[in-house]
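wait is this the right file?? whatever heres the structure
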């Protein structure tokens, strides 16, 4: 089958127009199985994010030196993030050089070892080392899972399937709060909380042994027969031919250029710079608008609001985590219908409002007596937390990961995905390492007001720099960036220089 792309067009014809067959999330169990297995990496990410918030309450009880030191508390939380920065940076290279499957297996081994080290830690410093190992694993997984899912997904449902990884993240956070509650009365409370995190890593390792490599990666590495064998399980015969033609075109284009890229190459091409600005910017704003401040410290925030019981703080935080998971399901439903850009803008508008509510709750608390705080401003803060999650989770939760899995050309996808995930983790580290200190210095109310200001900036960033990629093939997205970089006439000029009037592939 031949696909014709006319000068000035928006790109290749949509495969659904060619085949006329509607694709849904549940129309192919094989794709769904790949998605859910890869998404266990997101579960690890989410579980670690959520479990430390509850475990920290009991770590402080066991180690007085931690209880009396905000910096040490922040370090226990954020060391996993520091490890994730390294893991994400190396994971991008690992994905391109050795494939998505091997990167996942390596991440699972590192995470499992880290969970054992944490559970057995005799002091806070060995615990911090275990957190570093776990971070290396989740950093690599945060790059690998979205790319693996995206490259095995039909374009019409790619956003929703990639967002399933985010659902696994939020589901992992919810699971972590359930585990936290389950172990509140068990000796060695926090050790169980942290130790059981190795179980999903072992499960994913075993399942991945039976799954294929990403078909797109295989094809780009000239392992075409293996790639086609995988693709034939994803698409019907008519659609399969279309997808093979698209991959052939992409491979031919990559062959004409350099066979490999490094980190500096990202900044040499105007269209790649624009794509990376949009992708990395979304990842940074996801963190700087406060999501992991809420998830890492929600029990602590609840206690700040006047609810001093550890068990009650965990129970109220479970409501927040539940809202996060429910909101992500809504995001999966909307992202391929509503669009990535519009969903992000709506989400950010609500985030600003809810952060103002949170700020107001803590401002009200500071002006009340202790007895009044719990009855009014404390519940006001809980409402603010729930509203924040309700607005954030359907939009700014899944959108940055979905966009970053689809906006880069194939040869840049691992490198750029790794770099943008590194931006996410660096931003995450800054927020996690500074929240308690900033709150102590300027007050919790002012801290949430600062986050609201950042969310306003994020809203205008999305308006200016993030295009809509809903339903577009990878090739159409690549063309979109070229048009943004060089204008809509770039293709016509290129074709005229070559003496062509059409671009047949």
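ok assuming it is, sequence goes like this
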């Amino acid at each position: 089958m031949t696909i014709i792309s006319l000068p000035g067009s928006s790109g290749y014809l949509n495969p659904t127009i060619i085949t006329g067959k509607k694709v849904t999330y549940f129309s192919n169990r094989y794709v769904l199985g790949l998605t859910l297995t890869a998404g266990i990496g997101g579960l690890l990410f989410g579980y670690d994010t959520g479990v430390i918030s509850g475990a920290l309450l009991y770590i402080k009880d066991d180690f007085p030196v931690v209880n009396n030191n905000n910096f040490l508390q922040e370090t226990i939380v954020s060391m996993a993030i520091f490890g994730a920065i390294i893991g994400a940076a190396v994971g991008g290279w690992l994905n391109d050089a050795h494939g998505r499957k091997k990167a996942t297996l390596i991440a699972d081994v590192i995470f499992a070892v880290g969970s054992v080290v944490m559970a057995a830690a005799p002091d806070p410093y060995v615990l911090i080392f275990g957190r570093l190992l776990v971070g290396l694993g989740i950093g690599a997984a945060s790059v690998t899972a979205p790319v693996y899912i995206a490259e095995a997904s039909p374009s019409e449902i790619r956003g929703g399937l990639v967002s399933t990884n985010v659902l696994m993240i939020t589901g992992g956070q919810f699971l972590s709060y359930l585990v936290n509650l389950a172990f509140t009365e068990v000796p060695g409370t926090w050790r169980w909380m942290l130790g059981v995190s190795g179980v999903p890593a072992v499960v994913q390792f075993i399942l991945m042994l039976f799954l294929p490599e990403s078909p797109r990666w295989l094809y780009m590495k000239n392992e075409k027969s293996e790639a086609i064998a995988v693709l034939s399980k994803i698409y019907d015969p008519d659609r399969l031919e279309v997808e093979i033609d698209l991959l052939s075109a992409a491979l031919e284009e990559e062959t004409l250029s350099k066979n490999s890229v490094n980190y500096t190459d990202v900044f040499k091409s105007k269209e790649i710079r624009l794509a990376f600005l949009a992708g990395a910017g979304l990842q940074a704003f996801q963190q700087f608008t406060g999501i992991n401040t809420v998830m890492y410290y929600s029990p602590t925030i609840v206690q700040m609001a006047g609810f001093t019981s550890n068990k009650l703080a965990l129970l109220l935080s479970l409501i927040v985590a539940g809202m996060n998971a429910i909101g992500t399901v809504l995001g999966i439903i909307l992202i391929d219908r509503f669009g990535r850009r519009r969903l992000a803008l709506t989400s950010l508008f609500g985030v600003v409002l809810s952060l103002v509510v949170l700020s107001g709750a803590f401002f009200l608390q500071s002006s009340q007596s202790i007895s009044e705080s719990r009855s009014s401003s404390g519940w006001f803060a809980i409402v603010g937390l729930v509203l924040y999650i309700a607005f954030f989770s359907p939009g700014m939760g899944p959108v940055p990961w979905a966009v970053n899995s689809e906006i880069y050309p194939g040869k840049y996808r691992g490198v750029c995905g790794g770099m943008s995930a590194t931006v996410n983790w660096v931003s995450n580290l800054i927020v996690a390492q500074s929240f308690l200190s900033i709150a102590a210095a300027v007050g919790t109310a002012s801290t949430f007001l600062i986050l609201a200001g950042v969310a306003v900036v994020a809203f205008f960033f999305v308006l200016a720099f993030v295009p809509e990629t809903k339903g577009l093939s990878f090739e159409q997205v690549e063309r979109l960036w070229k048009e943004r970089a060089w204008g809509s006439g770039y293709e016509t000029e290129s074709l005229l220089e070559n003496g062509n009037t059409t671009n047949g592939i």
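The radius of gyration is 23 Å. so i think its the right one actually
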